[in-house]
UniProtKB/TrEMBL annotation, chain A:
GO terms for molecular function: methyltransferase activity. Residues 54-341 form the Histidine-specific methyltransferase SAM-dependent domain. The keyword Transferase applies. InterPro entries: EgtD_Methyltrsf_superfamily (IPR051128), MeTrfase_dom (IPR019257), SAM-dependent_MTases_sf (IPR029063). The keyword 4Fe-4S does not apply. Coiled coil: none annotated. This is Putative SAM-dependent methyltransferase. GO terms for biological process: methylation.
TrEMBL record, chain B:
The keyword Transmembrane applies. The keyword Membrane applies. This is Uncharacterized protein. Keywords: Membrane, Transmembrane, Transmembrane helix. It comes from Saccharothrix texasensis. The chain crosses the membrane at residues 37-56.
Length: 386, 189
């Protein structure tokens, strides 16, 4: 890089910092046409009445301005318990684990969402590292813009220290590039990665995703993971989980917004169905599907203007989510090659929620479990074992 | 030493008096036998009286001891079945109630139980005593570790360890069942 290039970057940074206009510099990591093609191809899958054919995979559910606004609405809906409680209680839960994050950390956030949580994380990290770099990563540029603004609003982070990256983080090749980028930006300084708001649960291959994401962490880095949890797994509880989601109209509008914006279907929010199941002993699983209940076949126009049939009773899976069994968490973390540094759990203390449903916030570090935290379990066992 | 000497002296004197009484009875002419007979029977009543009195006192002492052990066991049962030790109890930090053993202690130390007749019970009570001391000590350690730890998770780990099947605590409950059964109490109220 020549001196004048350096000056250009410096000028750009200054222009952003000193302007009153809300400039944001976004690194776009992928060709958005490819994304559209992928979404289209997911909507061309074979008919299925069980939600296993056509689908809108995670990321696409939030892609575009419509879904972004719908998501922000849903998060503010008191009936959408998981998100509402997750946001409300985050301050407290983060307060319990943040003591274990040392000095000098940068922050990389996978899936910014509305940015409320990133803001709390940033406030804490900034106190210990004024030169902090904030890298929110999201597939949706609109979500990036919304979330980043909320996250950095009045926290005293200068504009050029924010590097939003538009990228689908479920693709391993993308992560390899992202890793390069981040390491170039921060050098050997430690990074706190985060995947919050039960985003992990939205992916079919959630274990694989977690392993890929945590693989970015070097020994000096930490990973903050937030997931919805349940004390037990059984069919009754799966039904309770379904009801928890089904209650919120704003949530139904959010899950259908991707269809509304990418197809020409006339959306009937009552055709949104929630199907609960038990996923082994690791989680309760909820599939949100949109079923053609019109009694006849429909032709649906896809983003590429192709018209494809959406037969009677056929479904489009709009969203996938889970509540992880708390007992299974340790195994999930271990399989991702991480160890738990500390964690905190909060129950949903509301009468409308099922007993034992809650949120867990885990602070993870790379590598095998070191003896220290294990020894804690052992102490309890040594004392009460026999 | 003095106790043995006094006992020997007392019983020796009684035995000699008894022997003399019997001899007196044998050698005295038939008409004069009333006096040595009365004398001998009075001595015999005196000797057996001492033993009867001792035996009754011991029995009463044993009954009292067993009664208070029973009460104590029932109290311990209440503690173990109580909120603090139930699996559904809140998982946070807490001070646990302790098991008590003063009745067992005093029964064992006062000798209210007979080493021959109550051998099994004594053995069981000794085991129970050790278990109670151990539980209380472990509870103390647990509280100390839980209260000095910054993470709430620690309390949960202990909660889990405490309620583990086949853990130490289950052993204590089983021992209490056994003790209550041995004392002739209904095991569960
Ligand atoms: C459930 S929201 C969580 C938002 C926020 N972290 C919170 O806790 O409130 C999921 C976020 O991840 C983003 N996202 C989901 N799948 C993604 C993918 N495959 N690649 C990039 N971003 C994705 C969505 O756009 C959305 O902002």
């Amino acid at each position: 890089m020549t001196a004048s290039d350096g000056r250009l970057v410096g000028d750009l940074a200054r222009a952003i910092d000193e302007s009153d206009f809300a400039w944001s510099l976004v690194l776009v990591g992928e060709d958005q046409r490819d994304k559209l093609a992928a979404l289209t191809s997911d909507l061309l899958n074979k008919p299925s009445t069980s939600g296993d054919g056509k689908q809108i995979t995670s990321g696409y559910a939030y892609w575009g301005i419509g879904p972004t606004i719908a998501w922000a609405h849903a998060c503010a809906d008191p009936f959408y318990l998981v998100m509402k409680q997750s946001l409300d209680s985050f301050t407290r839960r983060w307060g319990r684990v943040r003591g274990r994050v040392g000095e000098g950390f940068h922050h990389v956030s996978f899936g910014v969402g509305t940015g409320h949580k990133d803001r709390l994380v940033l406030e804490h990290l900034l106190e210990r590292n004024p030169g902090l770099l904030y890298v929110p990563v999201d597939m949706s540029s609109e979500m990036l813009r919304l979330g980043t603004q909320e996250a950095t609003h009045r926290v005293g982070l200068r504009g050029h220290r924010v590097v939003p990256v538009q990228l689908d983080f479920s693709i391993p090749d993308n992560l390899a590039e992202l890793r390069e980028l981040i390491h170039r930006l921060v050098g050997d300084e430690p990074v706190l990665y985060s995947l919050l708001g039960n985003t992990l649960a939205n992916f079919d291959q959630d274990d694989e995703l977690l392993a890929n994401l945590t693989a970015l962490a070097r020994p000096q880095d930490l990973f903050l993971l937030e997931v919805a949890t349940t004390e037990a797994v059984n069919d009754d509880l799966a039904q309770d989980a379904v009801e928890e989601y089904a209650r919120s109209r704003a949530y139904r509008e959010f899950v259908t917004s991707a269809l509304l914006h990418n197809t020409d279907l006339t959306i009937n929010v009552d055709a949104v169905q929630f199907r609960g199941a038990v996923e082994g002993d690791r989680a309760l699983k909820v599939k949100v599907v949109y079923q053609n209940q019109t009694g006849g076949d429909i032709m649906m126009m896809l983003p590429d203007r192709n018209r494809v049939p959406f037969p009677d009773r056929d479904t489009i899976r709009l969203y996938l989510t889970r509540k992880y069994a708390r007992k299974a968490l340790d195994g999930i973390v271990r399989e991702a090659g991480m160890r738990k540094v500390t964690g905190t759990h909060s129950d949903f203390g509301v009468p409308r929620s099922s007993q034992g449903f809650g949120m867990d916030l885990l602070l993870l570090a790379p590598g095998e479990p070191v003896p220290a935290p294990r020894a804690d379990d052992d102490v309890a066992d040594v004392i009460w074992g026999n | 030493m003095t106790r043995i000497a006094i006992t020997a002296l007392t019983f020796g004197a009684l035995a000699v008096a008894m022997a003399l009484g019997v001899t007196w009875f044998v050698v005295s002419p038939p008409g004069d036998r009333w006096e040595p007979a009365v004398n001998s029977f009075a001595l015999l009543a005196g000797i057996t009286g001492i033993f009867a009195e001792r035996w009754a006192a011991q029995r009463e002492q044993r009954n009292q001891a067993i009664g208070s052990i029973r009460l104590e066991m029932a109290r311990n049962r209440e503690t173990l079945d109580g909120e603090a030790f139930s699996a559904s109890a809140s998982r946070g930090r807490r001070v646990y109630p302790r098991l008590v053993q003063s009745a067992v202690d005093s029964a064992l130390s006062s000798g209210a139980l007979s080493p021959h007749r109550d051998a099994d019970l004594i053995d069981l009570l000794h085991r129970w005593r050790t278990a109670v001391a151990s539980v209380n000590r472990r509870l103390e350690l647990t509280e100390m570790l839980v209260f000095t730890s910054a993470s709430e998770e620690k309390a949960e780990q202990f909660h889990t360890a405490l309620h583990r099947a086949n853990g130490f605590f289950q052993g204590v409950r089983a021992l209490l069942d056994e003790a209550q059964a041995a004392l002739g109490d209904p095991v569960r109220p």
